[in-house]
Amino acid sequence: MLRGDITVAIRNAVMHELAEVGYGRLSIEAVARRAGVGKTAIYRRWGNKLEMVLEIVSDVAGRSVPLPDTGSFAGDLQLIMMIVHRALQHRIASQIIPDLMAEAARNPQIAETLQAALHTHQQAVGEKLVGQAIARGELPEGTDPEVAVDMILGPLYWRLAVSRSPMPDDYLEKLTTAVTAALKSTAP
Amino acid sequence: MLRGDITVAIRNAVMHELAEVGYGRLSIEAVARRAGVGKTAIYRRWGNKLEMVLEIVSDVAGRSVPLPDTGSFAGDLQLIMMIVHRALQHRIASQIIPDLMAEAARNPQIAETLQAALHTHQQAVGEKLVGQAIARGELPEGTDPEVAVDMILGPLYWRLAVSRSPMPDDYLEKLTTAVTAALKSTAP
């Protein structure tokens, strides 16, 4: 294998092991076996398990999602909700995310890495979405992008990742209407 | 110790062990040691670790929270948000909840137990809150209690338990305004 291919193989193996056994039970041996490389290939790249997982996860989490501009706030919202919906339904993501969040409650380094990646992302998404809507005259000046992100992602995350309730067909549409009305009400 | 005291001591020990080491690393030995009882006292009550944790956690999760009737929807919302806020900031809860959710992604029995407790609760809370508000003429007939619960708990859960961002002083007030506007918009 080429050097770059080995790194890719290790990254994939780490993501699969995280999904299957979780951070607590993940071992360098199992990652090496799954990637088809020796343990030294791993230790040449990272000092230990924590370092390896932090770098790989923050790289994946930090990849910028293409921000939509569909021409209307309702369209942007529905698109972003569909992206989040798909991501949370993804087999690997739906196991890795809760697992790392549980580790984060015990390990400050994991907490900081995840939160830094999340904050950068959600700030960018919130500012772009709300900024576009204000420019189009769909939301009032002064709409709070931070509250917007909580209102857009929170209900969806709650339903799909916490209460795991079924999602009625018209749910995303209802949520879009609700979020738009909510944001109009919060501008000063 | 009396029989009932032993059960209480074991329950407390389980909750503390769950918070400290998580379900995956929790051992019957450590629970017995912390509770100051023999392992047989535990095995007389539960067949194994999964059974023990499921019964104890579903008992705690199923305890009914007193549902507020403050006389106004805004008041009810602010009270319920303060209750959730305090619960999510609680040291033990803030470690146990993400840990069990991570286990739930791998273990269907844990997932079902948690979701059953959550669904019963949130349905009762949603129906009571929204029902009261409709009776008072604050929300239109036909307001969806399920969407209401997602809009009330989701943003708060996202901010406090996922993105763990600081909460500005006027946040709960802004959220109350936003949720009220959102719900008015979703009635048919």
Automatic annotation (TrEMBL), chains A, B:
The keyword Iron-sulfur does not apply. Residues 27-46 bind DNA. Pfam families: TetR_C_11, TetR_N. One of its GO terms (molecular function) is DNA-binding transcription factor activity. Residues 4-64 form the HTH tetR-type domain. Keywords: DNA-binding, Transcription, Transcription regulation. PANTHER family: HTH-TYPE TRANSCRIPTIONAL REGULATOR RUTR, TETR-FAMILY TRANSCRIPTIONAL REGULATOR. This is DNA-binding transcriptional regulator, AcrR family. It comes from Paractinoplanes atraurantiacus.
